[in-house]
Amino acid sequence: MTTADSQQKIKEEARAVHERIVTLIKDEDDKLRMIRTICVYAGMLTETLIEYDEPDVVMEQAFHRIADLLQTDPEDNDGENSLLPLAYDIDHDTELGRHLARSIAKKLPKSLDDVHEIAIALVLNDLPVFEKLGYGRDRTLRLLIETVIASLTYEMATQDFCDIIIEQFISEHENAPADALVAVAAAAGFYFARSETAMVLPLEAEKHLENVMVRESLRHGTPGQRNWGGLAPANDTATEKIPDYLARLRPQIDEFFDLIGLDDPLGRSVAVAKAAGRLVAVITLEEIGHIHPTIAKSLAKTGLILGARYRETATI
After folding, report:
1. Between 311 and 305, whose confidence is greater?
2. CA-to-CA dists, residue 18 to 45, 84, 95, 100, 164, angstroms
3. How far apart are CA 89 and CA 29, in angstroms?
């Protein structure tokens, strides 16, 4: 394929992706549609960054390049005027972008390298359009940067926490995989409860967090039902074990979050919930567990509930 043919292919895929996103994001509110679209672009960029040996370096280069071409710097103020959505919404839409990136990479000559260029081209095309709606490109660039960082952080945390659980909690200390599932889900519930004390969340927030686990487990091939709402709780799960689980896991998890600078408790909860969802897949599909998918899902759901309840009597 010649260079000209390659460039034409990229342009065609860019148009197809843009049309696909328009059909997927149908919110009537212009602001919400804009925010969700940028989150999808952030997810596409995230999927490409993961493939590089130094994703932080490539990420910084991409941001500088976008800023130069848009002739703007990202907005400094990220307080009351921030466009940043809640962490579980960021996860939902950036994962949509990551899925799109993987699906089109197979069609392109340079795979995810071409996807990287497509994502940047879509950003450069749409941010000036959003500016006409009253959202300056400095604000939307800030949103793009923050959502890419959040998406990349969640993925790094998920990988790290799964390794901790498998290598230390299960293998080194010979805990049962079922206990590991409850433990990591309880940690997600604990951070979620902390977020409730730090900010006002929608009534359905806990359901959104559960859906983070559901999506991650499905993404990694967990079979069986997709709706965990009807699952019965694991009644034989000992509530008295939760303090011990949290005492063993939280120091390592907190250390990771402190190291990368993730202070948002809801963001922490989402990252750990993703790890719980991925662990459901690992334990049901690989040889470390052989737990039936329905049981694994029920254990994760129960751990989430118990971890949130523990906060009520814990000193935080």
Report:
1. 305
2. 14, 22, 16, 11, 39
3. 16
User: Using CA atoms, how far apart are residues 257 and 245, in angstroms rounded to an integer?
Assistant: 18
Token couple for 121 = 């081209």
The C-alpha atoms of residue 22 and residue 55 are separated, in whole angstroms, by 28
Contact status, residue 233 vs residue 301, Cβ threshold 8 Å: yes
Give the pLDDT confidence of 158-171 residue by residue, as tens digits: 999 998 888 888 87
More confident residue, 55 or 312: 55
pLDDT at 285: 79
User: Do the beta carbons of residue 304 and residue 273 sit within 8 Å?
Assistant: yes
Count Cβ neighbours within 10 Å for each residue of 21-43 and write b for 16 or more, e otherwise: beeebeeeeeeebbbbbbbbbbb
8 Å CB contact between 145 and 52: no
Report helix, strand or coil for 235.
Answer: coil
Question: What letter represents residue 132's amino acid?
Answer: K
Q: Could you tell me the CA-to-CA distances from 84 to 34, 35, 168, 276 in Å, in that order?
A: 11, 8, 35, 24
* pLDDT the model gives residue 111: 92
What is the rounded CA–CA span in Å between residue 188 and residue 246? Answer: 10
**Spatial CA neighbour of 217 closest among 156, 282, 269, 294:** 282
Quote the tokens at residue 75: 């907005």
Backbone dihedral angles phi then psi of residue 202, each to the nearest 5 degrees = -60, 155
The tokens 């959003």 sit on which residue?
130
List of residues 6+ apart from 24 with CB closer than 8 A: 40, 96
What are the tens digits of pLDDT across the range 213-240?
999 999 988 877 677 766 656 555 567 8
